[in-house]
Records
---
Amino acid sequence: MTTFDEVHALTHAGSLLSRHGEIVASYDLEATGSDASGFTSLHDARRDILCAVSTPFTANYAAARRVHLINAFGVTLGDSIIGLSALFAIKRHWPHLTFTIYRPAHAPGYVKRLYELAAPLVGGDVIDLPVPLASLPADEPKIDLGNHLFWPSFASMPMIDFFIRALGVDPLSVAPEDKRNRWLRDLALPLPARHAADAAYVLFCPNASTPVRSVPQAARGRIVARLWDEFGLPVYGFGAIDHPHYRDIAAHSRDTAEFIAWIGHACYLATPDTAALHIAAGFDVPTTAFFTTIGAALRSRDYANCHAVEFELSELQGIHASARAQDLRALERVYGAYDWRTMPIVMTARPFCRSPEMRAGVHRAPPPSR
């Protein structure tokens, strides 16, 4: 077996095995600044651990009772929502299954909170890595999904199909309606703050997980104005924006459950944040979503109530994170050149929002003139 240097350990497509026989997530090594040398590939060490990035497989779930998912579904909220949607799609086909999920111990708290909320639905345990490899039962299926960001197919497949395939199932065998995150409705969620719970509102989530996918500050007021002009309803959001009909509700959205609830009760959503988009899809909240560094089809293909605005930024395609000044200047150019009065609105599911019905689809913004 190959022993990795630090660079290869952190970018290895799959989970790691330590010298002491423990399963380790490369994310935890990076998050803690730990020495990342001397690790080997988990799925090279144990051939009974299935890992689709090295050897594609078809899982025999009919014969299983409990399945062990190693380093599953990443450390972002959006990826985790879609990964859990893949899990629940499989449980709908094989309801007798339970899952034990092993997760990076140092994942952000708001992502951990999602797994706490979902645990009663998963029907199994969520366990922090590292764990001894020897503690995993030899006679139960074990699937490694570690470090999926570095799997080649993650950049080319719709995310839901990627995770279904990584779990050993043909994505074509799963109905589109089972790919729409409806399990979010079964979570134990609070109501939004009482002063807003009984009133219709539009929600604007301008921040994504990285600056290069977030709405530039200069465009935020124009988006709020477009939403107000369309709906005539108060626009709520996260962060300060100067507009007379906008309200910052960040102080009333202190954890993941409250964030999900605000989106689930909204009559409309505008956002570049795919986590917010995935949540809205689960509750059938119509959405206008903005895409800059990844194609809309890879994240919103199955969402009937989504209008996707794709900005032409070919030089940034495929970038998962960036705060580089030159990248943010390119982002500001395309947002600044867009005529926000033409921002598409789709309205099919929330009749108390004032809007003509429009067909969901993709609107490609032209590149700005240089």
Note: The first helix runs from residue 6 to 11.
---
Amino acid sequence: MHAHTSIATVIELPNWSPEERAVFHSCFRAWCSQASSDEFDKLEQLREQVAPGEVCSMVRLVRAGFRQPDLRDQLPAALVGLLQERRLLPASSAVQGA
């Protein structure tokens, strides 16, 4: 966690079941099939912040990015929207109230 991120602003996400992880990967594949190169670049830039120089699973990357307010805006909006539709991530209104 970044030193300037307050514990109170970090969103806690429940662990996903194997079924939910499978839904995540389905959503991720759907997003990949229509994402622009700019969106892929945005996700790669986020990966460099979350796990610099490391191999990082997409599940870990998206969850880490979503949990931290200073990283959340760096996630591609279309991917976040798909995951919110499938109830894997809280809706925007729930996040803003956190």
Note: The two ends are 17 Å apart (CA to CA).
---
Amino acid sequence: MLVGFLLLLLCLLFSVFDDSLSASENSEEWQSLRFVMPSGVSTISMNSRICNHLRKNYCLLGYDYQVNHGTALLNSERIDRIVFEDLIRREYNKINWFSLNSNESCCRFQSDIYINIGHKKGLFPISYYVRVTDFSRHNKRLNFLKIQNIKEKCLNVILQIGYGTGDLMVTGTIDSSVPLVLPLMARRGLYTMSIEAIKSRTVLSYGWFRTVVICADQPWICAKYASETPS
């Protein structure tokens, strides 16, 4: 118990240096809070099918970076993993961050993502934890989409969506002759949009996504940010 507390305190102390470094960086460096959209279609991505059994609206995938923030010299990977697992174990169910590659709910999957995206790029556990649990509007614009073309449905389906800073990154397979849709499983419907609207980022704002998708599963998030000024 005492050891765990001391490890957490150590991470808090060194995260000050990490955060001061982050604050000095260009705000447009690519980073994204990413989500998986659930789907019951058998030919869809496994992550979406697993998520479909866990939540009706979304599953959190993590916070992704394309830049390094230095090197966490004083903490070993093993120590950082222990500390991060202790942090996220209390919160994963509240933010829909479940394991999408095994039968466990927490916390190997989540800590693997932290190690690969956070620890190895110089972010201490508490710094990554703060970012992955931040659902405010601050610095969140549509910047990631993973799309799969489902030929038998004549649709392009959004499997993953991300919000943060930097240019829009689109991966996957797209057929420009058929509609692009975001599955809204709880509403038993599809939100349809054009490829052009996606490219101009005039649809799928974070404010809309948080209200319609995130808060449908976790209403406390909208309650927490109720006083936030619309952006």
Note: Residues 2-23 form the longest helix (22 residues).
---
Amino acid sequence: MIDPFQRRPSPRPHPARSGSLAASVETARQLHDAGASTDALTVLSEALRHADTSIVNPSAAPAAAYYAELLHASGESAAARPWAAYARNCHDHLYGAGHQHTVEATMLLARIAHTLRDPAAWQIHDDLVATLTSVHGADAPQTVAAIADLAQILHRTGHCHTALTRLQTIDTIHRRPRPATEVTIRVCARLGRLLQDCGHLPQAAAHLDQAHDHAARLLGATNDLTRLIAGLADRRPDPQHQPVCEYRRTRPDPPAGVAGPIPEGAW
């Protein structure tokens, strides 16, 4: 099977045998929608049993992507990873990195790698950010969300300064006059949460307060996101982050620009 984290020479296309695979995917979707996820996985497992994952097969790629999605959702992320990688590589070869199918497959692979805490997760996310930026722009919602996910991975692995700087870059982009969005609110809250874990509690509180205020205005005080952000205010720093925290080891201060809240009216 194609190595999910190694770029290989483009394999030769395989003649599509779309009928049975497409029918299997449709059957699996119907089973999943009906709550029979185990049966859906069985259908896809049988359909892909003899798939040659060393070659590009336009009909196998969607089946592999959906199979990986269901495996990941069922908690079998390790089994899902090679299928997600195969789907991504096929779509990339067939349509290019910026095509929606390729982007969706890359996002799935990135989520799986993140869940598995794979060291290569940051590289997948970094590639995804570059692709989304070139296709949709640096401040598109999907690009912002990918940058935030990348920052969380970097932070978790002890690259705290880089992680916070990436999130601060998003904040800087969104300082232009514009209304708050759910994506920018989540970024502000995530920045506060990561600052908490690094021990920068006053700065964290400032960002969480601002995220909560914007969420309450945009979504309402009873919205789930507003309540979640409110709960973060009393959250203690994650003790598992302390041994790897870059600030606790080498840097006393957060990066410039995250010492206080974003000015009112910035969004």
Note: Residues 1-18, 257-267 have pLDDT under 50 and may be disordered.
